Amino acid sequence: MRKIIKIAIDSPAAAGAGTQAKLIAKHYNLYYLDTGKIYRFIGYEKIKNKRNFNYKLIKKKIQNLDLKSLQNKNLISNKVADEASILAKDLKIRKIVHNFQIKCAYNPPKKFKGSILDGRDITSVIVKDATLKFFITANVKIRALRRYKELKSLKRKITYQEVLKSIKKRDKSDYERRYSPLKKTKDSILINTSNLTKSACFFKIKQIIDKKLKLNGNI
After folding, report:
1. Considering 69, 105, 165, 180, which has the largest number of Cβ atoms within 10 A of its Cβ?
2. For 19-56, how does the pLDDT look when each residue is reduced to its tens digit (9 = 90+)?
3. C-alpha separations of 146 from 9, 158, 164 in Å
4. pLDDT band at 153 (very low <50, low <70, confident <90, very high)
5. Residue 143: CB partners within 8 Å, gap ≥ 6?
6. C-alpha of 112 from chain center
7. Which of 3.40.109.10, 3.40.50.2000, 3.40.50.300, 3.50.50.60 is the CATH number of 5-205?
8. Measured between alpha carbons, how far is residue 211 from residues 8, 63, 67, 217 in Å?
């Protein structure tokens, strides 16, 4: 089996993990998977197709999932996020998604030097042996403001207070769910983005990654 770089990131909603993961993926030529978007994808499918929504359909959708489908702007809505948070508590659904995530993490396309996944249980469950693990977080009000601005840029009719309420609800669900709850593992490096610009945060993470890869002989 070829030796690949595996980077795992966990974070609460709107902490900036996705933005940083994309920057890291591009810089180091890593295959990127936003695992939270998979649950949003399933949530969106349930909202669209409640009558025929079942485990067999989910399994088929995930097995044939094209990552371009995760770029659908409809997945960003609070309604989809809330539905995704509920579905993420279902062990059967988690097992289906888990298999897809493992495939992406350990068998990325050969043109990539490795993989980077971000989500809620990546460091603790999906990629336990990751080359590097990060836990990215930020103050809840700052996270809510970021998501509010993102939704407003998409012309969504929503208030900041509604977004803040949704973020707090999702945090409670993510941290307290029975299966694979969001938590910082002991070997994860904490990155608080509250007072960091996107570029400053990336530079900080890059320094950590470069040092690790140099020690491992990857660069």
Report:
1. 105
2. 999 999 999 999 999 999 999 999 999 999 888 899 99
3. 19, 13, 10
4. very high
5. 12, 13, 14, 15, 167
6. 19
7. 3.40.50.300
8. 16, 36, 31, 10
The residues, ordered by sequence, that sit 6+ positions from 153 with a Cβ below 8 Å of its Cβ are none
Structure tokens that stand for 187 in this block: 């070997």
Helices (H), 55-132: 55-63, 78-87, 91-106
pTM for this model (two decimals): 0.91
What the block records as the tokens of 26 is 């591009």
Q: Are 126 and 10 in contact (CB under 8 A)?
A: no
DSSP assignments along 8-36, one per residue: EEE--TTSSHHHHHHHHHHHHTEEEEEHH
The total of other beta-carbon atoms located within 10 Å of residue 210's CB is: 14
Query: If DSSP codes are grouped into helix, strand and coil, which group holds residue 52?
Result: helix
Gyration radius of the chain's alpha carbons: 17
